[in-house]
Amino acid sequence: MRGSLWIDDHYTDGWQPILRGAMEGLVGLEFIEGNEAIARAAVKAGCRFFAGYPITPASTILSHMLELLPSEGGVALQAEDEIASIGFCIGAAMAGAKAMTATSGPGISLYSENIGLAIMGETPLVIVDVQRQGPATGSATKGADGDIQFARWCTSGGLPIIALCPATVAEAYELTYRAFNLAETYRTPVFVLSNKEVSMTCEAVDLEAIELPPLAWRKRPLEGAPYLPHQFERADEVPALADFGAGAPTRYTTSTHNKAGRLTADPEIIQEMIEHYAAKIEAAADDIALYRYDPEEGAETLMVSYGITSRAARVAVREARLKGRKVSSLVLQTLYPVPERALRRALAGVRRAVVPEMNLGQYRREVERLAPAGVRVSGVNRMDTTLISPSEIMVRGEL
Amino acid sequence: MDAAILQTYMTKELGPLPFCPGCGHERLLRELDTALVKLQLDPRETVIVTDIGCIGLSDPYFVTNGFHGLHGRSLTYATGLKLARPELTVIVLMGDGGCGIGGAHLLNAARRNLDLTLIIANNFNYGMTGGQHSVTTPLGGRTATTPGGNLEGPLDICATVIAAGAGRVYRGMTHDADLADRIVDGVRYPGFALLDVWELCTAYYTPQNAMNKRELAALANLTGMRTGLLVEKARAEFGAAYRAASKAAKARPRLVIEKAFESALDRQVGIVIAGSAGQKVRSTATLLARAGMLCGLDAVQKDDYPITVMTGHSVSELSLSPGRIEYTAIDKPDYFAVLSEDGLKKTRKSIGRLPESCTLYVDESIELPDTKARVKRIALSQATKALGKLTASVVAVAAIVADAKLIPAEALEEAIRRYQPPAIAETSLKALHKGLQLAA
């Protein structure tokens, strides 16, 4: 990924503390914050509708979208509250627009019911959660990764969603773009789990140099064939989507429904639909999984990290290797569906895993449940608004 | 659509309507159907959005698009649909319950004036959940949750949205002979149109309160809530206004930074500037970051300031490195500048922990706590007395650049020329030269 902060062979070939000339060849360098990268990625991904409600540290996504969308023929507006923000987006998404909303933890609480609706209606939608220290109002302008499990379980019914987590401004750009592709491909809400420390930090970045996959759009129904809004043959198949107003009249409903989008109380159909919502995400877990695995031959320890903390974790891994420790590193960009195959592979053969997180150990639960018997999983946790440092990871992670 | 005239917009596919005998919803939907026939709208471009409650069962009985969302939020989906696809005709059916839980959306739809039609099936209670009281239950009205009679006064929905600026507001009863025509008027109105339609709930409210058609009409007099067309006025429609304003919209040009200088910096350095609001701390840190990038360096900046932005401290942290910067916090600063008492107050704890390797630049007038850092006093307040308070950060940054030789001073000068507006750059250049002198 040229132009991003991570060069994959950073430390497999022996880390050089100074990579002189790391910026060479990047001709489009800008100095921008993560939230601007998120907004620009959205526009690049074809987003033409944004609604949000002011909340630090997500507010500047709203202001960037207000600046960027009108000249693209899109609509960006501030709604009366968070519930309206996501409601507007769901309506716009079903009328054919790629849509995004952005908030922080308190706003996700208010999005909760509508996230369930988006799952139920199979609505492509990107939700940015710029995490801040909580609970409740917390430290409004300080970072944390306190919503990691909340994103997964934030709505009643407990059905799966997709969540990506950027560590850098460059990744904020790349992963937001990919979030739209995933939302369209799987007809589902997709979280971008940012953090104040990524979103409101300015970095040197060349967005144009970041390699992106081709744009994805929702699958369209075959012309002439009768259209069912939730049509599938296999449970894990993603139904085609016809926009409101684009063709034959269509239906959308929050209530249990059949493939035609009509109310049903038939337990067999209800079960079939529920299994479909889950299967289309879970069956695609390997395709959705984004991670960087940096194995060390004969490693005793696996460092599992994500988001802003992964930057300190990688420094810690590098330092530990210089001390002669055998450590592998797995940095996750996809948090949900949990990249289980990658985690199992990385966990195989190690004696212990260390999971540093800016929360009290939320993702550690996922590592623990996948770890083979005998593998000790421990956390390095901090939720005091400050970053976890490489030296703290080394000391508390016993590296 | 086909040239054929549609005789009805309702489908018989689902059988008869599912409402209780005598329920006002059935009559209301028949009137809506009559209105749609009069309007001859293309069903493909018409959406009936329904809220939760018995009225939420309605949309599948129409051949138009149907959108059935969460309780109280129907106006929000309607807003998104209409903004994303302005050619749609969007009609919202909501109960009085939705007006309570979705009150904020009701007020703001009236205020915003997007071209939507909201029909409220107002039967004074929650019929779907067992006849509980709603925001429109009359004073004294008996419901499942007000067994002794309602003690809360009813919300006058029409007066409320009129106060919020609604352009077309009508109140009537389901059995009004002209209801279909009034629905036609509402749909044709180019803005937010509301129809508050009073109904009988034969399962709960009507039997509990000995209500009938005559009583319903009398209720209007009793409560002083007027009926008929209450407001009709011309207002700018939001969607059209938004699209017109968008024509002039332009995004800022990107500010691309190309390497123009060399830097001798051979390690990652952390610089902290601690000052006050109004001292241009953040923008000057950005200036130094860009100057570093002009020298091919990587840069990371984080700022800290109170939510009351024009007062108190302003602290910026800036990392510069010839290689990529990974860990973005500055645990051991290399250079630390204290520009004011606010900056000192905020960073007092950090100053106490500064390592010996750190150089601390501080104005002559400021009394420092104990620190291991190497302290360099600079005549900052004297310099800014002549140049103005806004220049404090540039003077300090120039002094650091000259003293620490992080980057050539020419790079900072070039950054000022390129990235600051000419009027500000003029003063900044003076401040730059002052800072260079101070360091000498």
Describe it for me?
The complex is a heterodimer of chains A (399) and B (440). Chain A is α/β, with parallel strands linked by helices. Chain A contains 13 helices and 16 strands. Chain A has helices at residues 34-44, 59-68, 82-94, 105-120, 148-153, 169-186, 196-199, 267-282, 285-288, 309-322, 340-347, 364-370, 390-396; strands at residues 30-33, 47-52, 75-78, 98-103, 125-133, 139-143, 162-164, 189-195, 202-205, 251-253, 291-294, 301-306, 327-332, 334-336, 352-357, 376-381. In chain A, the strands form 3 sheets. In chain A, strands 2, 3, 4, 5, 6, 7, 8 and 14 form an 8-stranded mixed β-sheet that branches. In chain A, helix 3 runs parallel beside helix 4 (105-120). The radius of gyration of chain A is 21 Å and the shape is globular. With 440 residues, chain B is an alpha/beta fold. Chain B has 2 domains: 24-246, Thiamin diphosphate (ThDP)-binding fold, Pyr/PP domains (Rossmann fold), CATH 3.40.50.970; 269-439, Pyruvate-ferredoxin Oxidoreductase, domain 3 (3-Layer(aba) Sandwich), CATH 3.40.920. Chain B has 15 helices and 15 strands. Chain B has helices at residues 24-39, 74-84, 96-101, 103-112, 157-163, 179-188, 205-208, 213-223, 238-246, 281-294, 341-352, 380-387, 392-404, 409-419, 422-439; strands at 46-50, 65-68, 89-95, 117-122, 125-126, 132-133, 168-173, 193-198, 228-232, 269-276, 298-304, 313-321, 335-338, 359-363, 374-378. In chain B, helix 12 (380-387) runs antiparallel to helix 15. The termini of chain B are far apart. The model of chain B has no long low-confidence stretch (mean pLDDT 96). At the A-B interface, strand 2, helix 3, helix 4, strand 9 and strand 10 of A face strand 2, helix 2, helix 4, helix 9 and helix 10 of B. Strand 9 (202-205) of chain A pairs antiparallel with strand 11 of chain B, so a sheet runs across the interface.
